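In the current project phase, our protein records have gained a structure token line. A sample record follows, to show the layout:
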Amino acid sequence: MTRDAAWTAFDQAAAEAASARIVDQFAADPDRLGRMSVEAAGLYVDLSKQSWTRAAFNACLDLARASDVEGRRAALFAGEAVNLTEGRAVLHPALRAAPGAGFKALGQPVSAEVDAVRADMKAYADAVRSGAEMGATGRRFEAIVHVGIGGSDLGPRVVWDALRPLDPAIDLRFVANIDPRDMAEALTGLDPETTLVVVVSKTFTTQETLANAEAAKAWLAAALPSEGMTKHFIGVTAAPDRAAAFGCGRTFAFRDWVGGRYSLWSAVSLSCAIALGWDVFEEMLAGAAAMDDHFVSAPLERNAPILLALAQVFNVDGLNRPARTVAPYAHALRRLPSFLQQLEMESNGKRVHRDGTPVTRQTCPVVFGEPGTNGQHAFFQQIHQGPDVVPAEFVIVARTHEDAPESPLWSNALAQGQALMLGKTTEAATAEGLAQGLSEEEAARLAPHRTFTGNRPSTAIVMDRLTPHTLGALLALYEHKTFVEGVIWDINSFDQWGVELGKVLAKAILKDVEAGGPSADLDPSTATLMTRLMG
């Protein structure tokens, strides 16, 4: 089947599915749950409450085949230049592969280098934790300040929040915002003599990161002897010469085939490897590698990242649903929605195909979310009763703390998915009002307000416990899902030119500020705002 023919069949199946009710599909298709749920790398993914019928599900699989998902997947793992606008391989799977793997980037072996950097990370992390590596005054490190932004910040933050012990031996804090308040909060209560600063920047030119790194360096310099200060300042970068020139006493490298939002598996997470311990970090890599193995080997119809991607494509392009909410029912995963916003929206928020021609369909939806049950008391009202259908994704952990299943927590997740699907008819709402003692008139008056249309889709991703292994698998699941969507939409998921223009203009505005005011070619609105803010 050609790609155009597959899209035509997809559109037809979507049009037919639009009037079908999800709950009715279980009776019409007794094997629906078995076919639309998958177990992979310690995760159970249930897509049976999605809006697709059996015919639409099959049309989605045909679209994946016609889009050559399998061929593009092979190109990714072979280290071909899948980031075609920048001529780069994209090899984050190489970062979590077992030692001795044979990954190549554009034909050049890279696994030996990955293994070497990983060994250096382990040695350094172990040395800091044991006290063999100490600060300028001979005291052990008790805190780490991780300085980065975007992919150099969100990935490690997710990892730390998800896996941190309640009373960590090493306190890890993050700074990303250029607002000085962020750095001030991070440094408050810390002792420079026992604080390690890890600066993460792929190019070591990122404005926000360098400004914050300068502030951290000044804080250290005010309290430490100059000859030993470099022990407190570590760089993680693809530009080690720039990091050394900046004043980093030691650097850990990663290559340009590691995209920022896919880089948490590299030295970018050095601070987490130190604060959590190397065994924890290594087990997270193993969980991600297990998901890699599943993604590469499982057939399309039993492949968790592919099915998760197809569900999103079906909602966005088949049913015109341009937003999706993610609700992790685990406090430790509270930053997952923010991580996914960058992973998915920076990767697939594109308006042209790989060949540069404008897209004719929608691409990435808006992604938003909050942890359950918090979100239930915020935006869930809209996803239940608003006029627009917003697909929901529930990440559910059976045991979030100690050994007892957190049934009051996960029962809410199950109830939300069920409520979105079933809804409540006006007749049921009227009967409910009567049962509560309302008059017939009052029950009828309130019934429209208590009615839920239902037939709203959701996906459940379930794990028994949030462990380093299941966290690694979960994050890799979303990485591969994002890649598959890019293949189907025929866009480049691995560049981010949309980030650059604002950076360039910010530098120009700063020059105007330094010169005393807006330049003549600045637009009236921006010029007025600048003047007002300059006071």
